[in-house]
Design a protein that fits this description.
This protein has eleven helices and no strands. With 201 residues, it is mostly helical. It folds into two domains: 61 residues; 133 residues.
């Protein structure tokens, strides 16, 4: 991806996030917003809003989830461990609790993103919000200097498989494991990945 393409993609991710946050603010204010209301609050056109969210139901399903995602700077504020295995496990636990508390909404969100991808021929508009990478990178901050850029990015990508609703669906529908057993498996996996990456370095 060229620098220009990356810049445009990042701008589109910010626009999508702005729409979700705008909808969240309106919902918190006790309003039942229309797409026009959300677009105006996000300072974008109605056409832009519909490009990212083809209908209001999809936006209203995802907006509360966006609000409930753990904020990395908050969960790592205060007395938190410096050990990278402890930190990555701590971060995954926080996201795990949010995901299992919003399972039905997240399943609808995933379904909507798949439908949007199928109908999005140019694939320019992000169909999903990346909420996990910043959380992972914040957890790994104390050891970032110990890993080469390529290895750090590889570790972050490997960990991302366990941070999100996709893992919940695998453990719930495929394995199947209950919430507590799924958490135990993910804890073991994310710790093992961090340990392996550091050993490799």
């Amino acid at each position: 991806m060229t620098a220009d393409n990356k810049g445009r993609f990042n701008q589109r991710k910010r626009t999508r996030s702005d729409l979700l946050m705008a909808a969240g603010r309106l919902l918190k204010a006790g309003k039942k917003p229309t797409m026009e209301d959300v677009a105006e609050e996000a300072l974008v056109s109605r056409a832009t809003a519909y490009r990212y969210f083809p209908n209001m139901e999809e936006l209203l399903v995802e907006a509360p989830i966006h609000e409930n995602v753990p904020i990395a700077e908050e969960i790592f504020a205060g007395d938190v461990p410096e050990d990278p295995e402890e930190r990555i496990d701590f971060a995954e636990a926080a996201l795990h609790d949010m995901i299992y508390s919003n399972e039905a909404e997240l399943r609808v969100m995933l379904m909507n993103s798949l439908k949007l991808w199928l109908n999005n021929n140019d694939h320019e508009v992000p169909v999903r919000q990346n909420r996990r990478t910043h959380l992972i990178e914040t957890a790994l901050a104390p050891v970032r200097s110990q890993l080469e850029k390529e290895k750090f990015e590889k570790l972050s990508a490997a960990l991302s498989v366990f941070f999100g609703p996709e893992a919940m669906i695998v453990y719930r529908d495929v394995c199947p494991l209950n919430e507590d057993k799924a958490r135990t498996v993910k804890s073991w996996a994310v710790r093992a990945l961090v340990r392996a990456a550091l050993d490799e370095s």
